[in-house]
From TrEMBL:
<keyword id="KW-1133">Transmembrane helix</keyword>
<feature type="transmembrane region" description="Helical">
    <location>
        <begin position="20"/>
        <end position="43"/>
    </location>
</feature>
<feature type="domain" description="Fatty acid hydroxylase">
    <location>
        <begin position="112"/>
        <end position="246"/>
    </location>
</feature>
<dbReference type="Pfam" id="PF04116">
    <property type="entry name" value="FA_hydroxylase"/>
</dbReference>
<comment type="similarity">
    <text>Belongs to the sterol desaturase family.</text>
</comment>
<dbReference type="InterPro" id="IPR006694">
    <property type="entry name" value="Fatty_acid_hydroxylase"/>
</dbReference>
<dbReference type="GO" id="GO:0016020">
    <property type="term" value="C:membrane"/>
</dbReference>
<feature type="transmembrane region" description="Helical">
    <location>
        <begin position="67"/>
        <end position="87"/>
    </location>
</feature>
<dbReference type="InterPro" id="IPR050307">
    <property type="entry name" value="Sterol_Desaturase_Related"/>
</dbReference>
<keyword id="KW-0812">Transmembrane</keyword>
<keyword id="KW-0472">Membrane</keyword>
<feature type="transmembrane region" description="Helical">
    <location>
        <begin position="161"/>
        <end position="186"/>
    </location>
</feature>
<protein>
    <recommendedName>
        <fullName>Fatty acid hydroxylase domain-containing protein</fullName>
    </recommendedName>
</protein>
Length: 274
């Protein structure tokens, strides 16, 4: 497997410049992962699948179409130029695409550190966007979808895309990683944010197995409350909200829901065995 990956990589760096791979290549990776992971949730909305739906409401076809059209415009006019102008900074910090490829241990450690940095920066940036003026003029665009689905994860005002996009590229920008690491980081970050906005809580959802991971239910609560102090500001983990008490409403709601479910089980009539 390693040899196959190296052969593919050698083909890429032989036939394309590093700038092309770092800009256009990263854009293609991002778009592919984003739309391929987000479209299934869009189809679930379209088909009205409700078994694992967090909210009962569904978005209209017109709202779904609006989201997709604006996403394509934003990605071409904001994301792609950002990837292009970021290349000199990455290169200055030691970015490379050359062989040999980095070890999986190095890749894993860097991506974990990127998640921690991104989550910390995102929390404060997101919390700032929920102040009155910034929410009204910028962040309210993202909150047009009170019932999120996967693709709404990147539906936002262009200023917000740049503002919170800084959290995503900060880790790679200061470490100058290998291109392979960058592509993997972009992929897993996109998968995480799409899942957080998917609107579904499945038995196999990662949040059921990792207590510090937010997931769809955690972020769905944030979208249901359309005002400036909704809480649950973190992107990936939950500990920042817990430390600063910005998840109190969510935890209270979860406790009430758990208590109600327990009460319903206790109150349920039992069948008599004859």
């Amino acid at each position: 497997m390693a040899q196959i990956l190296e052969n593919v990589w050698e083909y890429l760096i032989t036939n394309f410049s590093e700038f092309q791979l770092a800009s256009a290549g990263t854009f293609v990776i991002h778009e592919s992962v984003f739309f391929l992971s987000g479209l299934p949730y869009l189809l679930m909305e379209h088909w009205g699948l409700r078994k694992y739906k967090i909210q009962d409401r569904m978005n209209t076809p017109a709202a779904q179409e609006k989201c997709i059209i604006k996403l394509i415009i934003y990605h071409l006019c904001v994301n792609l130029p950002l990837m292009i102008i970021s290349y000199p900074v990455f290169k200055y910090m030691g970015f490379t695409s050359a062989l040999p490829l980095p070890s999986w241990k190095t890749v894993a450690l860097q991506i974990i550190s990127y998640f921690i940095l991104e989550d910390f920066i995102f929390y404060w940036g997101h919390r700032l966007l929920h102040t009155k003026w910034l929410y009204k003029h910028i962040h309210s665009v993202h909150h047009e979808y009170a019932t999120p689905f996967g693709l709404t994860s990147e539906y936002a005002h262009p200023a917000e895309i740049l503002f919170l996009g800084f959290a995503t590229i900060f880790g790679p920008a200061i470490t100058g990683p290998h291109l392979l690491t960058l592509w993997l980081w972009v992929s897993v970050r996109v998968l995480e944010t799409v899942e957080a906005h998917c609107g579904y809580e499945f038995p196999w959802s990662l949040s059921r197995f990792l207590p510090v991971y937010g997931g769809a239910d955690f972020h769905d609560y944030h979208h249901r409350l359309l005002y400036t102090k909704s809480g649950n500001y973190s992107s990936t983990f939950t500990y920042m909200d817990w430390i600063f008490g910005t998840d109190k409403g969510y935890r209270k709601l979860k406790a009430l829901k758990t208590a109600q479910e327990a009460h319903d089980r206790m109150s349920a009539p039992t069948e008599k065995v004859e």
